[in-house]
Design a protein that fits this description.
alpha/beta; Rossmann fold; seven-stranded mixed sheet; two-stranded antiparallel sheet; about 35% helix; binds S-adenosyl-L-homocysteine
């Protein structure tokens, strides 16, 4: 018979070793994701790859979807929204071209995963979500993971950006806009600020990168993507 003290010690040991193995296997899955889905497909920014290697994506998906946390696909989150495919998160982050201490605006917080990747790269992030349920969930999750000091989560219509926080070094829109909102162009840092967003009809879009230099806005197309709609004043009607 084990005494209560020994049982408590054993319980703690097996409990923590269970966690140890779960964390180990998630780390292995992240390694594989970074190699096969990102590096192999042409993501080259080492800072982006390093961030994707450490942020625990399983903490951002529904518990019922944990087995798919590192799968090569978008996954459903509450309010009928999605957490983007890992490759798309990496590609948008790479295209944004931001680094330590840059101030970044994200529109469409969703699960908070993209915001965590930006924070992990050293950015200071303001992220806006129109569904309070998602914003609350993301805020709690990001606090638990220790990102609160670098990420502010707000509820509201982000399609008009956040003029009070402008100029932004980077603006990343994680939902599809029918056209590039003028408000977002205007809020970019004139010295090379970048806006990355999907533009097009509701069912298919192109990933567009806008770089501002003074009063010139250079646009380029990074190829086809499919996102949930940006709903609001600068997006689609609700
Ligand atoms: N970046 C997220 C994925 C978000 S999916 C992640 O890493 O999980 C896109 C999100 O944009 C959805 O949560 C949707 O509710 C939100 N959204 C759509 N229109 C919006 C708007 N006008 N303002 C703020 N958020 C918006």
């Amino acid at each position: 018979m084990l005494g209560p003290r020994l049982r408590a010690i054993l319980g703690r040991m097996t409990g923590s070793s269970g966690r140890f193995w779960a964390e180990r296997s998630a780390a292995d899955e992240r390694d594989r994701m970074v190699e096969r889905q990102l590096r192999h497909r042409g993501i080259v920014d080492e800072r982006v790859l390093a961030a994707m290697l450490v942020v625990p994506r399983e903490a951002f998906v529904d518990p019922a979807q944990r087995a798919l946390a590192y799968a090569d696909e978008a996954l459903p989150i509450p309010s009928g929204q999605t957490i983007s495919q890992p490759y798309i998160v990496a590609r948008m982050t790479e295209l944004l071209g931001v680094g330590p201490r840059d101030r970044v605006l994200e529109i469409g917080t969703g699960s908070g995963y993209q915001a965590a990747i930006l924070a992990e790269m050293g950015c200071r992030v303001t992220t806006i979500e129109r569904h309070a349920e998602l914003a609350d969930g993301a805020r709690a999750r990001l606090a638990e993971l220790g990102y609160s000091d670098r990420i502010e989560v707000r509820v509201g219509d982000g399609s008009v950006g956040d003029p009070g926080g402008a100029p932004w070094r980077g603006i990343l829109v994680a939902a599809a806009a029918p056209s590039i909102p003028d408000a977002l162009r205007e809020q970019l840092d004139p010295a090379g600020g970048r806006l990355v967003l999907p533009v097009g009809p509701r069912d298919h879009q192109d990933l567009i990168v806008v770089t501002r230099n003074g009063n010139d806005w250079l646009e380029r197309n990074d190829g086809p993507v499919a996102f949930v709609p940006l709903v609001g004043e600068g997006g689609f009607p609700g």
